[in-house]
Predict the 3D structure of the following.
Amino acid sequence: MTQPLLEVRGLGKRFRRAGSTVTALDGINLQLYPGETLALVGGSGSGKSTLARTILRLIEPDAGEIRFEGEDLLAKRGRDLRAMRSRLQMVFQDPHAAFNPRATVARAIEDPLRIHDVVPARDRPRRIAELLERVGLSSELATRNVHDISGGQRQRVAIARAIATHPRLIVLDEAVSALDVSVRAKVLDLLVTLQEQEGIAYLFVSHDLGVVKKIADRVAVLDHGRIVESATADDLIRNPQSDAAKALVAATPRLKYSPEREV
Ligand SMILES: Nc1ncnc2c1ncn2[C@@H]1O[C@H](COP(=O)(O)OP(=O)(O)OP(=O)(O)O)[C@@H](O)[C@H]1O
Ligand SMILES: [Mg+2]
């Protein structure tokens, strides 16, 4: 048996706010294998982003364990944590927030190459051009400001930046949710192609089962910080068991009438 790339055990997180406590994660267990896509779905406030951000070490959990490539991710500090970050990348919904507002496209992609020292300075322009090509963008875009290109182009730049360090896992939080339907389908195709070429695993957070059906091998359904159901995308859509999954299927009517239709 292959070892899981990512293994989460008993993960818990509570937020305290104005005298009350919200349990955002309540004993989460999951495993993700190399080259696989696990989708995390669930209603608003179910804990998807908290889980994604905890795995990325942007939020510290109160309880539980995260192992990445067999190592204790929560024990990593300093240089070890940085080294691990090059193999565990992220793409968020809003690349506006993720990019320095004054950055050019080239600069945005160069950052991880420099920070993780993957490519010597003199070779970086060529590597940036190569990465732009990989994500279907013209290298002429390199000198443009990241805020001066379309939303779909910006999300491709975010993907180029994420793959620059040859990660084994990319955590995507609603990464295609803000895109128009036709642009979204093309970005999903790009993600699938990159996965086939590089064997990257995706943890793909989404509230849209139509999108999940296109990209995910398995789906975990979150409700109030717990995984209440786990299935293949097809099984989940055809035969949802939990109330949370039933609500998601009901909220995506096009799935029922034309399951093969492109999203
Ligand atoms: N920094 C925070 N401080 C206090 N409460 C928080 C914080 N972040 C998240 N929460 C709460 O934790 C719960 C889970 O939130 P989370 O953002 O993980 O949900 P989500 O599934 O990503 O929702 P959405 O689909 O709306 O993005 C919610 O009740 C939310 O209000
Ligand atoms: Mg969220």
Remarks:
- Residues 15, 17, 22, 24, 42, 44-50, 207 surround adenosine-5'-triphosphate (ligand 1) (CB under 6 Å).
- Residues 95-166 form one domain.
- The chain is about 35% helix and 25% strand.
